[in-house]
Write a structure and sequence with these properties.
Blueprint (H helix, E strand, L loop, with lengths): L1 E4 L3 E4 L5 E4 L7 E6 L4 E7 L6 E6 L3 E2 L5 E8 L5 E5 L8 E4 L5 E9 L2 E3 L2 E3 L3 E10 L2 E2 L5 E2 L12 E2 L1 E11 L15 E4 L5 E13 L2 E4 L5 E7 L5 E7 L5 E9 L5 E12 L4 E14 L5 E7 L7 E7 L5 E6 L4 E2 L4 E2 L5 E6 L5 E6 L7 E7 L5 E8 L8 E8 L5 E7 L11 E4 L5 E10 L5 E10 L5 E5 L11 H4 L2 E3 L5 E7 L2 E3 L5 E3 L5 E7 L5 E7 L4 E10 L5 E9 L5 E10 L1
Parallel strand pairs: 7-14, 17-47
Antiparallel strand pairs: 1-14, 2-3, 2-13, 3-4, 4-5, 6-8, 8-10, 9-11, 11-14, 12-13, 15-16, 18-20, 18-50, 19-20, 20-21, 20-22, 22-23, 24-25, 25-26, 26-27, 28-29, 29-32, 30-31, 32-33, 34-35, 35-36, 36-37, 38-39, 39-40, 40-41, 42-43, 43-46, 44-45, 46-47, 48-49, 49-50
């Protein structure tokens, strides 16, 4: 805490002489001014003590969402004192502060103008500051965990703690944006400042923070921005009468603009004028950091069944997405013929088309995941028949494209059994090392299909690196789609999600114990594929079904999904939770 004091002083002496003095922590010297002679004569010490201000903080570090009390105390000068705080806080000696991020608060104290004989004391002012840090989270005992703030470069270790969470009452009726969509039930991204962006689909009613929403159509889209402490900053609903809007994926660029993708059936105004989709159109919408719509696109033919399956944004703000379709589609250039196949599309930051291509150009391949790396490179993860032969079992594939959309290389992962690959997914880290997740289904001796989740890394040139198919990557509930959701931090560590019940053994890390019928789990693999850390979150009476995960610059994992009442089968609420180490 800092403190500053000033002590200007004016003395009216006999014979028209005036004495002036000034000081800070100690009294200043005094000069006597002779008005007739026009000069100072004599020197002395000012006897009125300077005004000093201090701030006492009830806590200099608080858990996310908590508050601290600041108390200012003035000494010296001429009491009583008046206190004025910055940040719009009420006047007075005490202030209650509830910062969302680490904040420095200042106060200025002013004493009263006093009269004593022939001495007139000019009002003095003193100021002080105090900083209250917002912790990255708190231990189970409530002690703040404070991070230095710089991005971490090594994998976290140990067990995570919940930093903050939100649970919103929402209704959801089943439906999908596309046959291979990652999930129409929730997607999440974070911006460079740590703000959280959530997109989902709902029916009926929704309560997000203090705002209530009612769906205009059968299915409406909901996009919400939260700060790093899970406080809602704004929320937007998109829908129309007799319309369906499904949201599959959301991404955020360096300017904190949010881009979400999915599908549209009907006519809806997203903020830039009405757009329509006959049957289903692939939908892409861009919002600025304040939630205002920048541009909207709906792509598809009159009888199309188009939908965005995955979407990302590169370092320059270009938007790349993969979409499935059963009809020709015009993405702003030549009509792309993708009958019963899929599309790969890149849009510039202003929404104009950079390129569009049928995924069949790269062989018998149906992409379900997309990621970008350096120099505009693009990676696609999906499934297809080996060597384009439809008679062979389905294989997982990773395809790398150059910045212009041309094919760089393809890597095929043959199936170990029946080839039941569930929506392979890809993320790209430092040095353009790609990590792909996939679920491989194969029958055991009894004929029962077993699904094994695997993650594998590939160099920028497509050379396989580490592979991890360990049992701890497979959640206990057989939620296949969730198995494909993982995120990479800035160092290339993989944060993998899952769901479990009861107790989950994690070898040397110990075990996790579920609080509710099913809890979420997050496991961290380092850049060699080794398990380094884990964490979980749940609530009593709620069965959690996670659907997407992301990680911020401080290696905090943010997970979103749906919560079900104990024993129930219908979604009752939507959750956002943030875990930190």
């Amino acid at each position: 805490m800092s403190k500053v004091g000033y002590a200007p002083l004016l003395r009216i002496l006999s014979g028209g002489l005036v004495a002036c003095g000034s000081g800070q922590a100690d009294p200043g010297e005094v000069g006597v001014y002779d008005g007739d002679a026009g000069s100072f004569t004599g020197r002395g010490d000012a006897t009125t003590p300077s005004l000093e201000v201090t701030i006492a903080a009830g806590s200099t570090a608080v858990c996310p969402g908590e508050c601290a009390t600041l108390t200012a105390t003035a000494a010296g000068g001429s009491p009583p004192y008046r206190y004025a705080w910055d940040h719009g806080l009420p006047a007075g000696a005490g202030a209650r502060v509830c910062p969302n991020t680490t904040t420095t608060y200042g106060v200025t104290a002013t004493d009263s103008a006093g009269h004593a004989g022939e001495i007139v004391a000019v009002s003095q002012q003193g100021s002080a500051t105090a900083t209250v840090a917002v912790a990255d989270g708190c231990t189970d005992a409530g002690a703040p965990i404070v991070d230095a703030g710089a991005p971490d470069t090594t994998a976290p270790t140990g067990t995570a703690h919940a930093l903050c969470n939100e649970v919103w009452p929402l209704s959801y009726a089943s439906g999908n944006a596309g046959w291979r969509a990652r999930s129409t039930q929730g997607s999440v991204a974070v911006d460079p400042a740590g703000n959280i962006y959530v997109a989902t689909t709902f029916s009926g009613t929704a309560q997000v923070g203090a705002t209530a929403f009612t769906a205009a159509g059968t299915h409406d889209a909901l996009v919400v921005k939260l700060d790093g402490s899970c406080n809602v900053l704004w929320a937007r609903r998109y829908g129309g009468a007799l319309a369906d809007v499904f949201v599959d994926s959301i991404a955020v660029d360096a300017q904190s603009s949010a881009i979400f993708g999915g599908s549209l059936n009907g006519t809806v105004d997203f903020g830039t004028g009405a757009v329509s989709g006959s049957f289903n159109a692939a939908l892409v919408v861009k919002l600025d950091a304040s939630g205002n719509t920048t541009w909207t696109h709906a792509y598809g033919g009159a009888l199309s069944q188009d939908a965005v399956d995955d979407l990302t944004v590169d370092a320059t703000g270009n938007v790349v997405f993969v979409a499935e379709g059963s009809s020709n589609a015009d993405f702003g250039g030549a009509v792309v013929n993708a009958q019963d196949h899929d599309f790969v599309v890149e849009l510039r930051s202003d929404g104009s088309r950079a390129f569009s291509e049928a995924a069949s150009t790269f062989g018998g391949f149906s992409p379900s995941g997309v990621a970008t790396g350096s120099a505009g490179r693009i990676w696609l993860a999906g499934q297809g028949s080996v060597a384009g032969d439809a008679s062979t079992p389905v294989a997982a594939q990773l395809v790398a494209l150059a910045a212009d959309g041309s094919l760089a290389w393809t890597h095929v992962i043959p199936p170990r059994g029946s080839g039941l690959f569930f929506s392979p997914f890809v993320r790209v880290g430092p040095a353009d090392v790609a990590v792909m997740a996939f679920d491989d289904g194969f029958p055991d001796d009894a004929g029962t299909t077993t699904v094994v989740r695997s993650l594998g890394s590939f160099s920028a040139a497509g050379v396989p690196g580490w592979t991890n198919g360990a049992s701890y990557l497979n959640d206990q509930e057989g939620n296949f789609d969730w198995g494909n959701q993982f995120a990479l931090d800035s160092a290339g560590n993989a944060f993998v999600g899952g769901v479990f019940s009861g107790s989950l053994a994690l070898g040397a890390l110990g075990s996790l114990t579920a609080v509710g019928p099913t809890d979420i789990e997050v496991k961290v693999l380092d850049t060699s594929g080794a398990l380094r850390a884990a964490g979980s979150w749940g609530q009593a009476g709620l069965g959690l079904s996670p659907h997407d995960i992301t990680v911020d610059s401080k290696q905090n994992a943010v997970v979103v999904g749906w919560a079900y009442s104990s024993g129930g089968s219908n979604a009752q609420s939507f959750f956002v939770t943030k875990l930190g180490w």
